[in-house]
Design brief:
alpha+beta, six-stranded mixed beta sheet, 724 residues, Nucleotidyltransferase, domain 5
Amino acid sequence: MKQIIINCEQLQTRVAVSAEGRLDEYQVEHRGEERVVGSIYKGRIRNLEASLQAAFVDIGLEKNAFLHYWDMIPATTEMLEMEGADDNSSADNDTDDESNEDAADDAHGDDQTPGNSPNRNNRSQSGNRNRRRDDSDQSGNRQDNDQNRERSDSGRGNRDGRRPRSEGDRHSGGERSRNRSRNDRQRSGRDDRRNSEQQDNRASRPRTGRGSSEQPAKSAGLLGRIKALFSGSPDTSTPLEKKQGRSQQQTAEEGGQSRNRRRRRGRRGGGERQSGGGERQSGAAESRQTARPDRRPRQQRRRSGDREGDRAARDAEIAEIPNKVKVGSEVIVQVTKSMIGTKGPRVTSNLSLAGRYVVILPNSSHRGVSRKIEDRKERSRLRSVLVGMDLPKNVGIICRTAAAGLDEDALRVDIQIILEKWQAANKLRERSAPICIYQEPGLLERAIRDLLSSDVDEIVVDDQNAYDQIVSFLDRLQHKDRTPVKLYDRPTPIFEHYKLTAQIGGIFQRKVPLPSGAELCIDETEALIAIDINSGRSNKGKDHPETILNTNLEAAREVARQLRLRNIGGLVVVDFIDMRSREDRNAVYKVMNDCVEFDRARTRLLPISRLGLLEMTRQREYASLQDSTFEACHYCSGKGLVKSSHTISAELQRRLRELLQRDKGTPHIRVTVSPIVLDRLRNHDSRILHEMEKQFGGNLTFRADPSMHQEEFQLTNVDTGKRV
């Protein structure tokens, strides 16, 4: 049985998802705390940093927000088309909206907003302290190359009964293959650049009908829209209905030409691969497939190659942004990442408002379906429903995963709820910056919006007002088969009743025990999150490799769960128990990859190295549960360690020796220390102190002060009453 359990108190609202009595997700919101992530602000640019390719925007918070140049580009229809987001229902386009719609389906659970490619997010981290986390991609590529060489060398032997090639044959064949591959990449890059230039030219044309007499302004295109966005002028984009007036024949011809170019490149590349020696291809390709079990389809890889040239073309335009955007300009931005540590929030100008079933995209006419809905008939049906809807001008929409199977009326209700919020936000746009024009809903509404799924059996809440709010919200959205909502009114605390209190307490422990007897050790540091797996008493398997594999498989499932529970983000390194077999490493990697698919935060995994290390990144919007629950210890300054009494005694004796040697004949010195240090001085170091008095002729007295820090001591001249 799966339940959403909600506890509402004066200071906190807590939401837990329990599956068969086991805590699966946990979120906390403090009352009175400003909800920043997902909120939309009208801000003012305070300064531009060319070295970071970013602007810092004052949105009224303690720190200025970080706005990368990539995030300044509006998510226009042209950009979505360049991302491969053609929403035709043909089979060729069934995997079209991978990046955009998956990001929107996560409903602000992603750094990537519609219209931004994942590479933009990696670029935009260049100015932050988290640049090291993004460098994991490069290290991962090096790791993949090492593993591929290892696997191709070890698996190339007599796999198919073929004679192993000599070292000289491999060298000469590999050299010829590299030359052919280099030439193929150069030709492909030139084709990509030509395609991107043609797409940019088509994107900059006015989308009105051929017979229109309107002339495009000189500032048309991406930079023109950026300038209009920052100057606060109203959007002049053409409505979706007029944009669809473009000739379908022209669109089909352009698409056909693009596909033909891809086929020609594919045939050239394929022919060269076939003529370049099948042994190398079978060995290296097999190792690459082993290293990446989730390899993307060929069509998707072609689109990715086309986007590389497109990004290179847009880089040139990005370089011109400082000339178009000036300090003091006003801009509408949405927070994608809250303030964490000493860093300010991260924002984007690509806005999105998430609902239960759909995501509304202001400043876009894109209509699509989440790629997580895999059924083609359902995708086509939802697309047809969206195309038939009459939406306001320049408003895009994407169906979330929860929209599968819903009729048009249910979608319209959700759309209307979101549009009402956006209309209210638009009324505040006329006020002077900085100002919040739209605030993300509280945890109660977000829990129903994001956590409620078809497999949830009931919702239990212990507050009458929250109960009424949830029932009203569900009545508007779920016309039939509404999830039961129960009001908990027993004297026992609700989390205690459902046996969640102890499980929640375990979230904050460094060590996480596993049923087999092994344990996880989780350490959060400034640079990364380190997770170590200790075998402990895990010795059920008779075969040692089998025991290691079973322990690592169990640990992989728990690691994915702990990442969700603790809201751990950034760079994560998991140190599995060493596995000699490549098959075992791939099995653990596959289980880990399958488990993180249930995570709403975007994750990226690299294959397990020969050292047993798995590197991954997990999107971080908020501070981790540990950071939001605890504060740095004032006694140890957050280090978790204090100097021992032995060390303090040595430092004290060093200071006394210096003082007595400098001021000979000092009559009387009183030493004040903490009780722990005084105990050390009396029981272990008293002989050394007596010898010091005899040697320098001083008189030392000691007293304890319970209020004094263990690392501190105080020396006072008794005759003058002054500190020395």
